[in-house]
Amino acid sequence: MxxxxxxxxxxxxxESWYLLCSAGDIDRGPxxxxxxxxxxxxxRTEGGEIVVMDGRxxxxxxxxxxxxxxxxxxxxxxxxxxxxxDGSCAHVPGAAEVPEAAxxxxxxxxxxHGLVFFFNGEKxxxxxxxxxxxxxxxxxxxxxxxFIADCTWYMVAAHGYDTQHFETVHSRRLHAPLVVDCPAPFxxxxxxxxxxxxxxxxxxxxxxxxxxxxxxxxxxxGGTIVVITGEFANxxxxxxxxxxxxxxxxxxxTVVPFAPGIRNxxxxxxxxxxxxxxxxxxxxxYLIAETEALGxxxxxxxxxxxxxxxxxxxxxxxxxxxxxxxxxTGGA
Length: 332
Known about the structure:
Blueprint: E1 17-22, H1 23-27, E2 31-35, E3 38-44, E4 50-54, E5 68-70, E6 73-75, E7 82-83, E8 89-91, E9 106-107, E10 109-112, E11 115-119, E12 139-141, E13 145-149, H2 153-157, H3 163-168, E14 172-174, E15 179-181, E16 187-196, H4 201-210, E17 213-221, E18 225-231, E19 236-245, E20 251-260, H5 265-294, H6 309-319
Antiparallel strand pairs: 1-11, 2-3, 3-4, 4-9, 5-6, 6-7, 7-8, 10-11, 12-20, 13-20, 14-16, 15-16, 16-17, 17-18, 18-19, 19-20
């Protein structure tokens, strides 16, 4: 068994995708946000494109979120400088030429299922993840469930490789060891089949209506987006967990449950909301119960044992992920 990496080896903010806000929040005008130690602004151009850029004007640092959208540009509320979707300055009032330094950092952004995601880097290293072999437009999303985990982002995602806690915390008894692979660049996946044990309300209901056995696939993308599929005999659960490092070594976790879209208008009106409500209730309850049971786990490379082998390999994989150029590494 090789030694686990030192805490200093983990990127503080991996170069990956992050959930930023609801798309509806931007429809009312530019929105100032703080994420990953950055001041950001998100806005929708008159052409409908969503843009995420550095929220402080390159001129004198004014808050661009207090400005307004003019065509495809955002206008600074202080001196009226205008920046296009690529971050370049398109107009400086009273100036014959645009200063060379008048440029904003821009982050790749995607709008999906009513949510806005951004990539923490100049260019996206991989597409915004979704369920393998599925098209996002064929699914609808439930209202996200957000909670705070009192541990670092890499400790949250490590749960997918922690075979001991599957039974002690989740009451899932594995049939065989984990199968771990890397199905795509910047992705690591664990797969297992387990019996559903436990007496929590969601476990009892799952056994009765979904099945007593589940096949789980957990794919971690870039360390911050976790896509999970649970296949029961009579149902399939699909959801995504979006991780964002916040202050004091904690992690904001946002869970987005998915359900197949229903084409029939009447059935869509009657059944779809109920389906999403049930998925949100079960998924949120399951994950929040885990977070409360774990308390405040801390990373200690010297305490890991042979039974933690898959976690150790995951930790090494994480330390090799690209780090944000303006954050580097440094643990949490």
